[in-house]
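in:
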């Protein structure tokens, strides 16, 4: 079971220490236990702080005397007479595997959620989303069986939001929209926080769904410090960190919000190709401007060269990566890297775009990495290649020059090489090292997962397959020069 099914508990005003689960709710007991909540049996005489049940068992859940109740399904009509404050939530796309929890009784936040967090890759989905937004704006959203109902004795903001109010100066009265991490158990959840009377979020509160997981928040802090310190074009397209917090072992961080739509979602929407290419070009132009503004002398790459030679190359020599791939690189400028600049980490709004999630950022990295990584992903989404397990095939064809999108990639690479005065012969080795580095991410992630939830599932993203495909293709590899043609 996905932990996302039980993540609605993060919307409760208090973190429960003891809970009871009634009926056949697959995985809830395991998920709560994994979150350090004591799950008591039905005959336990101690009153639980939380009761979880199907809506059909609402009476039994209320009879436990729990201060907080989570019901899967539409709230029974008599629930309001219990004296508990009731809130209706719509997990999307499903109760079992949600990526978004829509507070249907807040019309403004709900309409924003349905507009900004729905993947509309078909025209019929656009019509469906438009109808749903119209319903929530009128406050007439139906009492669907797919709802989740919260009932609490003392209503208040979600407990992590309350902690941000008390410790980080977040204004009181914000209205939360919860989005859920889409990867493995370590993927972080996010509250998008709307000010009172506001129609768009002004802050985001990231938080871990497992206790003790602090590393990404430390990396975020370092990465956003790099962006702020760099100033100029870097800082203007990055969020600002407002503070970090820890509550009962659960870590979080507060940032300024990036208001708008994820670039990936915009590229997936039905519509002409040209406006989408303009969005891609805008980000590519920014990447090149960042490299130009932050270029430092080649000596600044000494530590990164050492890391690549000692920690990356040894994993790939058996597959044909040259052991001298780093040592034979000519002197190159060191540039700021975002280092995870996929289309999912670019948010496009009325004032332009913001690059989010800077936890992998590097102050002194090799040039071209962000450009190749971004264009490989954005052009794949534009071309309709969205399957993670097959993404490496699109990347290989793109870099071999076999696709219409190859011209976009090559045009930007030629511009970057000219602007940064890179030796053309260095491009193949630089790009090769980019893919070798990123393909090791699943190994590092696996080690982190096993530290907190050994054996938990780890989804495939696609980038991990690119390195092997790159090294095995005679047209690619360290000698790659198709971009020159």
């Amino acid at each position: 079971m996905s932990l996302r099914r039980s993540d609605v508990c993060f919307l409760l005003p208090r973190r429960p220490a003891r809970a009871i689960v009634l009926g056949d709710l697959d995985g809830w007991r395991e998920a709560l236990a994994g979150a350090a909540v004591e799950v008591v049996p039905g005959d336990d005489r101690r009153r639980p702080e939380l009761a979880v049940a199907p809506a059909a068992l609402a009476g039994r859940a209320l009879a436990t005397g729990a201060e907080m109740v989570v019901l899967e399904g539409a709230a029974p009509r008599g629930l309001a007479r219990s004296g508990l404050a009731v809130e209706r939530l719509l997990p999307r796309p499903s109760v079992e595997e949600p990526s978004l929890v829509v507070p249907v009784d807040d019309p403004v936040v709900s309409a924003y959620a349905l507009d900004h967090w729905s993947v509309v890759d078909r025209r019929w989905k656009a019509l469906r989303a438009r109808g749903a937004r119209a319903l929530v704006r009128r406050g007439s959203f139906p009492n669907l069986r797919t709802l989740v109902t919260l009932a609490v004795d003392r209503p208040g903001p979600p407990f992590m939001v309350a902690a941000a109010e008390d410790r980080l100066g977040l204004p009181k009265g914000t209205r939360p929209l919860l989005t859920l991490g889409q990867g493995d158990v370590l993927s972080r959840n996010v509250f998008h926080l709307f000010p009172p009377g506001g129609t768009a979020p002004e802050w985001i509160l990231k938080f871990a769904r497992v206790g003790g997981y602090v590393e990404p928040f430390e990396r975020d802090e370092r990465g956003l410090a790099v962006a702020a310190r760099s100033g100029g074009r870097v800082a203007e397209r990055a969020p600002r960190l407002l503070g970090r917090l820890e509550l009962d072992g659960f870590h979080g961080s507060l940032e300024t919000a990036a208001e708008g739509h994820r670039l990936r979602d915009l590229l997936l929407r039905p519509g002409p190709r040209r406006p989408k290419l303009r969005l891609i070009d805008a980000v590519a132009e920014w990447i090149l401007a960042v490299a130009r503004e932050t270029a430092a002398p080649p000596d600044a790459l000494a530590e990164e060269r050492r890391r690549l030679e000692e920690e990356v190359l040894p994993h790939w020599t058996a597959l044909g990566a040259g052991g001298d791939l780093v040592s034979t690189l000519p002197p190159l400028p060191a540039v700021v890297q975002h280092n995870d600049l996929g289309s999912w980490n670019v948010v496009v709004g009325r004032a332009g775009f913001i690059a989010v999630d800077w936890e992998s950022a590097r102050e002194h990295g090799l040039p071209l990495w962000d450009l190749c990584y971004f264009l490989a992903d954005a052009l794949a989404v534009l071309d309709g290649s969205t399957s993670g397990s097959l993404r490496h095939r699109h990347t290989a064809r793109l870099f071999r020059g076999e696709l219409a999108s190859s011209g976009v990639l090559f045009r930007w690479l030629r511009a970057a090489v000219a602007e940064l005065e890179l030796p053309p012969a260095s491009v193949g080795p630089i790009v090769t090292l980019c893919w070798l580095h990123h393909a090791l991410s699943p190994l590092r992630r696996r080690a982190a997962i096993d530290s907190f939830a050994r054996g938990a599932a780890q989804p495939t993203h696609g980038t991990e397959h690119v390195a092997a495909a790159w090294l095995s293709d005679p047209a690619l590899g360290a000698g790659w020069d198709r971009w020159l043609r």
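note: DSSP finds 16 helices and 17 strands in the chain.
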